[in-house]
Amino acid sequence: MYLHESDTVTHARQLMRDHFLRGVPVVNDNRKVSGMITDQDILKVGSTKSNVTVAGFVKPVPQITPETDIYRAASLLLEAKLERCPVVKSTIEQNLVGIVSNTDLLGKMVSRDLSKSVREIMTSPVTTCTPTDNIGEIWSAMLENDYTGLPVVSKKNKLMGMVTRRDLIKSGFARIGVRENDGRIHNQPVEKVMSTPAYSIKQDTSVKECTEKILHYDVGRLTVAVEDKPVGIVDRSDLLRAYTE
Q: If we measure between CA atoms, which residue out of 219, 199, 203, 191 comes closest to residue 129?
């Protein structure tokens, strides 16, 4: 799945929303890879500018070929701050032959047992939200800070679930570039779209077990909790970094 430089932002946005993609490869008129377009940039574009092409939003990508070592590929993804990247035929022939994602790489690395624990790699403190928080405000925070998901907690800071970009887009509440005049869409509470149950792990959980859980549940992140209270978060990038260090 890819886009042409001449495709409109409207088309690119719809593709990302329909397939819950955070990035799509872009090719030029010669079908050579010119880069990647990410949701972080394109989902901010208002509906009045949707007729512009994706060419102005293309980001350069690292050179990954079918022969690239998986640990090298992981390092390249991390350096570029990408979750997925085009795979080209060769560094000379820039034809698109596939896509590699952090999930693909973790699936190959998980058999390796690391001595590290989640405590050593988690992001802490963790930003959270509550079931009554406004969806519009949470969506804006996600785009501005490049959050892919936030743990949802009760008034007593007990973990209840998770709200992700995918939840918001899938539900239709986050209709990017479209503002309801009465604010009806964006004034809905987080509890309308949050995912449950809340998948969590302990601080002493091994990196290997954490990776297995993320792959098994097909989620982008896990909340690290102590007595059901979030103290950190671990995502796929954290895990990739642990395997490549």
A: 191
d(CA 51, CA 207): 45
Tokens of 159: 């973990």
Query: Closest by alpha carbon to 153, among 90, 230, 219, 101?
Result: 230
Find the distance separating the first CA and the last CA of the chain, reported in whole Å.
Answer: 31
Q: Residues 191-227: pLDDT tens digits? A: 999 998 889 999 999 999 999 999 999 999 999 999 9
Residue ranges of domains in the chain: 3-101, 118-244
Instruction: Give the position of tokens 């034809």.
Output: 95
Q: Residue 158: CB partners within 8 Å, gap ≥ 6?
A: 228, 229
pLDDT digit string (tens) for 63-77?
999 999 999 999 999
Domains 3-101 and 118-244 share a fold: yes
Name the 3-class secondary structure at 97. Answer: strand
**Nearest-angstrom CA–CA distance, 67 and 74:** 13
Percentage of the chain exceeding pLDDT 90: 62
Class of domain 118-244: alpha beta
**What is the CATH architecture of 3-101?**
Roll (3.10)
Which one, of 58, 22, 57, lies nearest residue 165 by Cα? 22
For the chain, which ranges sit under pLDDT 50? 176-183
Cα distance between residue 122 and residue 103, in whole Å: 18
Angstrom CA distances, 234 to 45, 50, 123, 167, 207, stand at: 29, 34, 6, 19, 10
